Hints:
The protein contains 8 helices and 22 strands. By secondary structure, the protein is α+β, with helices and mostly antiparallel strands. The chain folds into 2 domains: 21-46 and 124-221, Pdz3 Domain, CATH 2.30.42; 225-366 and 387-431, 2-enoyl-CoA Hydratase, Chain A, domain 1. Strand 16 and strand 17 (311-315) form a beta hairpin. The longest helix is centred in the N-terminal third of the chain and has 16 residues, at 96-111. The relative contact order is 0.15.
Amino acid sequence: MAVYPEQTPQSKQVTPAQKGILWSMGVLAVVALCAVTFLGGYVTRMETNKSASIGAAPGAAQGGATSGGTQSFEALDEIYQVLKDYYVNPSQIPDFDVAKQDSIDGLLNAIGDPNQVYIPPSDVANVQIDESGQYEGIGATMTQKNGQVVIESLIPDYPASKSDLKVGDILLTVDGQSVSGKTTDQVVQLVRGKAGTQVTLGVKHQDGSTENITITRSAIIEQTVHTDQITDAQGNPVTDIAYMRISQFQDNTDKDVANFLNSIKGKPYKGLIIDLRNNPGGSLQATVNILNDLLQPGQTEFIEQDRNGHKQPTQAQRGAASIDPNLPIVVLVNGNSASASELTSGALHDNGRAKIIGQKTYGKGTVNQFIPLPKDGGELYVSIADWLTPNGNLIEGTGITPDIVVPLGQNQDVNSYENDQLYRAIDYIHNGQ
């Protein structure tokens, strides 16, 4: 995958593992992307280190792995050719590229790590990365889950959020074409398009019903930091609590966060609410910079644990903003808070800087990197390490459990931010419990 490099914070060295992508649960791709993506959007990531290749993979035997005397996976080629030559119903034999993809998917699925994906050679050159937050699409995120493409989140006020598309919907077709067996990158290519054009998505809702939903694409400029006026459960404006909702971690998110934190410094707020609900994650660099603003220098932000169990902590540096270290902070999370959102909430929690309220997070906590496949021409997006919270807690498959668990009230929408979870955060800051 073609990725442009990012600058690292001054006086901070980024480890090789951090140069892998912090792949979020539902991040964006302007030209195309794979595994987790905004429909028509772009991928958020840390700089990808592509110097490694399969030929230099640690522990790889020269000449390829062997099993039963057969070198590498040559048996697959032989089996495919035998089927082509002798199988009684040749029309049922899939195209070679399809068979190859199915075989690769089978291997990756056997490992059981949903964060890994194969990028075909034809897609590598087309995948361009952009974290500007400007693109043309429908404004939704999706991921592959149990072999299906699932809608993960909808950007407020954009076409997808105004349609009948729902979080949790399974994507079946795009303009009548089945997405079964397609890579997520291929699905993105079908969904994205110019503003003003339409795309019809066939989906299966969580209640089992199916529906074709036609959405008009638009130009989307996403603002990732929202400082809305919040109200309490009675509808009264809350003016003594600062509120900041981060919808995603993009290139400029950390700058917007720093500006907001500087703007509230010295004002008589009783507390700060950081809303990370429905935030699928994003740029590791932006995450580090934001934690630098919220933590004290020297405090651990998160830990990388490699395949050998070696742990590499990342410690906070002096940030671009500062706030009163005694100002109470509440972080709101839910089941759609993933990756960078989980790093942020885990760091603030384990350092005693914030109380976590809401529902358990998604559980996306692997460090991933694109490894070129020289013979094939494609790339493998592989999990090379795990993220741990400062206290050493594993995020992958576990998530962050809030200090105060608050389920949504009856008839409350997961995409709405004015709900019982926000009201509980307001009450906590006002009452200290």
